[in-house]
Amino acid sequence: MEALDYHAEERRKAEFDVEEMKIVWAGSRQAYEISDRVARLVASDPVFRKDNRTMLSRKDLFKDTLRKAAHAWKRIIELRLSEEEASKLRFFVDQPVFTDLHWGMFIPAIKGQGNEEQQQKWLPMAYKMQIIGCYAQTELGHGSNVQGLETTATFDPETDEFVIHSPTLTSSKWWPGGLGKVSTHALIYARLITDGQDHGVHGFIVQLRSLDDHLPLPGITVGDIGMKFGSGAYNSMDNGVLRFDHVRILRDQMLMGVSQVTREGKFMQSDVPRQLVYGTMVYVRQKIVADASCALSRAVCIATRYSVVRRQFGSHNGGPETQVIDYKTQQSRLFPLLASAYAFRFVGEWLKWLYTDVTQRLQASDFSTLPEVHACTAGLKSVTTSATADAIEECRKLCGGHGYLSSSGLPELFAVYVPACTYEGDNVVLLLQVARFLMKTVSQLGSGKKPVGTIAYMGRSEHLLQCRCEVERAEDWLKPNVILEAFEARAARMSVTCAKNLNNFANQEEGFAQLATDLAEAAVAHVQLIIVSKFIEKLQQDIPGKGVKRQLEILFNVYALSLLHKHLGDFVASGCITPKQGALANEQLRLLYSQVHFDNPSLLLYMVLLLERLLQSTSF
Ligand SMILES: CCCCCCC/C=C/C(=O)SCCNC(=O)CCNC(=O)[C@H](O)C(C)(C)COP(=O)(O)OP(=O)(O)OC[C@H]1O[C@@H](n2cnc3c(N)ncnc32)[C@H](O)[C@@H]1OP(=O)(O)O
Ligand SMILES: Cc1cc2nc3c(=O)[nH]c(=O)nc-3n(C[C@H](O)[C@H](O)[C@H](O)COP(=O)(O)OP(=O)(O)OC[C@H]3O[C@@H](n4cnc5c(N)ncnc54)[C@H](O)[C@@H]3O)c2cc1C
Question: Where do the Acyl-coenzyme A oxidase N-terminal domain residues begin and end (predicted)?
Answer without folding.
Answer: 17-132
